[in-house]
């Protein structure tokens, strides 16, 4: 179409949808597949190009979103970031990656930067369930919690069923014939660590009235934390013969401690959340709870793009399933 610039109203008329639906499609927000097909076909027929500069000025924020995560070196968060980026790019947004090392002060600084740079929204894997996002909310900047939720009912969240994963992991070890199953989990202030521990606790209580508190160790979700926790467990007067480890980096440290003690995963049962990060480890006999990291990122970005596009409905929580079969690495 030559001459005057094509508007979304013309695209909407040709597609047989509302202008709001055209806007949602162009912003990458979710609509029905049929509506998206009609809008895309109409836009192509009319040679419609969204005026991104005008949109940016009108909304007074950039087409950039912040992804704030605790540890980019962890392959789980690397895959999650890829999912966010894929979905954001499809919606016309770029992603700035911020690494907090689970430090609430650094996290707060990145939130301030996102506001100062007029970023369109924030996806946050919070350092703590009490992480402060009030400044984002006060400035009406969309925010979605991913992997870990917040102690707020008004914030969207995308998580996995961590308690069920912990239960499945522990039960798989008991089913394999192990009788004294320990748990190495993350900081008690982190939701994923607590929920995975509760799943393990449920499985152990099903077999003994109170469970065995000495078999529980809290660590820091890092390799050294897993190594120290496993060494402490092996030094007990009655050590465990298996363990649920609540993330992959701690599992790498736990494997170091097992090797130092002359134990292999075939002899000492191990169930791990997420794939082991290093190829050098012997993987036979290790049970893995699959975590849908990329899908978490994609779902979080889709929620955020909905909010950026104007969705002001009630906060939503999306819970993805882990692989409860807890497959065994060969």
From TrEMBL:
Gene designation per UniProt: lacI_1
Keywords: DNA-binding, Repressor, Transcription, Transcription regulation
Signal peptide (residue range): none
Classification via Pfam families: LacI (PF00356), Peripla_BP_1 (PF00532)
Gene3D superfamilies noted in UniProt: 3.40.50.2300, lambda repressor-like DNA-binding domains (1.10.260.40)
Protein name: LacI family transcriptional regulator
Positions of the HTH lacI-type domain: 6-59
GO MF term (any one): transcription cis-regulatory region binding
Organism in which the protein naturally occurs: Acrocarpospora phusangensis
Source organism, top-level taxon: Bacteria
InterPro entries from the UniProt entry: HTH_LacI, Lambda_DNA-bd_dom_sf, Peripla_BP/Lac1_sug-bd_dom, Peripla_BP_I
CDD domains, per the entry: HTH_LacI, PBP1_LacI_sugar_binding-like
């Amino acid at each position: 179409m030559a001459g005057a610039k094509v508007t979304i109203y013309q695209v909407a008329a040709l597609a047989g949808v509302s202008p709001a639906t055209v806007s949602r499609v162009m912003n990458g927000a979710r609509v029905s597949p049929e509506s998206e097909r009609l809008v895309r076909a109409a836009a192509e027929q009319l040679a419609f190009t969204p005026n991104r500069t005008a949109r940016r000025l009108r909304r007074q924020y950039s087409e950039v979103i912040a992804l704030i995560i605790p540890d980019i070196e962890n392959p789980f968060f690397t895959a999650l970031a890829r999912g966010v980026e894929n979905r954001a790019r499809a919606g016309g947004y770029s992603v700035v990656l911020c690494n907090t090392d689970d430090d609430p002060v650094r996290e707060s600084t990145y939130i301030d930067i996102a506001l100062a740079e007029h970023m369109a929204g924030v996806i946050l894997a919070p350092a703590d369930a009490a992480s402060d996002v009030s400044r984002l909310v006060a400035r009406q900047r969309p925010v979605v919690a991913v992997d870990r939720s917040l102690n707020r009912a008004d914030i969207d969240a995308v998580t996995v069923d961590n308690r069920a994963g912990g239960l499945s992991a522990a039960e798989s070890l008991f089913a394999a014939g192990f009788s004294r199953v320990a748990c190495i989990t993350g900081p008690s202030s982190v939701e994923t660590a607590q929920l995975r521990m509760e799943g393990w606790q449920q499985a152990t209580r099903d077999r003994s009235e109170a469970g065995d508190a000495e078999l529980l160790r809290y660590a820091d979700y890092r390799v050294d934390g897993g190594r120290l926790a496993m060494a402490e467990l092996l030094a007990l007067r009655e050590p465990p013969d298996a363990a649920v480890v609540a993330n992959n980096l701690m599992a790498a440290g736990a494997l170091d401690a097992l090797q130092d003690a002359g134990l292999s995963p075939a002899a000492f049962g191990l169930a791990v959340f997420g794939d082991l990060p290093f190829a050098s480890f012997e993987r036979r006999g290790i049970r893995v709870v699959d975590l849908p990291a990329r899908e978490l990122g994609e779902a979080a970005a889709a929620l955020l793009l909905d909010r950026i596009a104007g969705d002001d409905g009630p906060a939503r929580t999306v819970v993805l399933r882990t692989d409860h079969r807890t497959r065994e690495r060969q």
